[in-house]
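Task: complex structure prediction.
Instruction: return structure tokens for all chains below.
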Amino acid sequence: MKQHKWEEYGAGHECSYVDCYCDHVTCTLCGVEEDSAEAEKECPGFMNGLSELEREFQKVVEKASAKIEEQIKIARQAIDKAVKISEKYGVPFYSGITPLGMSYTPSSFFEKFDELSSEFVEDKLWFSVSEYEGWEHSSIC
Amino acid sequence: MNEFDNEVEENDDPYESPLAKEFEQVCKDAKEQINAKLEEAHAALEQAEKIADQYGVPFRSHISPLSNSYVPTNFSESKFGKLDKEVVCEIAGVWGEYIRELLGGNYGGWIHSAVCY
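Output:
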């Protein structure tokens, strides 16, 4: 992979990713311009622009997400099977666990990563984290 | 009027009709299997929560612990669709704001499928 040294994210650059709203970054070595999203994917030095806590969060998200997804997949398959049984017998059923999408926020998130900006967290997780711990709709439905 | 209507009308107590009794037995058989699967799903979701707690990472899931009732597709057209809705709800243990509409309509699925997504 071609090694770029992006102006905004390279060594010595002071702005953090969270506060930087530049649409484009320029490589100080070859002058190539790239949009920030592409630079993030390509540049190994991108992490230089992150604070220690942001780096840690990025790493644990990568590590935990695959494990969590695996469990959700198991749950999904089990519910799909319950639905098939219901269809087979023609009987309705009531369930305390269902295919309704929502987010879960562990209390340890606030202990470990509360200092992170909500924009950064949202960018890494692809959804807005609730200000309350637990399941998002636990008090609604 | 068909044979099922007769069966229901012959008994004063709708819970004691042969069809209700048959429904009760089918529910019992099906629920054993359904509950086993729901327990599996619950355990997996609890495991996901534990992982999130361990790492301190929130997650978004399309499976969640929100109570909901499921009605098989075209339930109203099945033989058990002839039963009184109260009897069905009581025996199957299902409830919810739109349960009657779902039991009586030509559709089925999760009650809250159109509410929360």
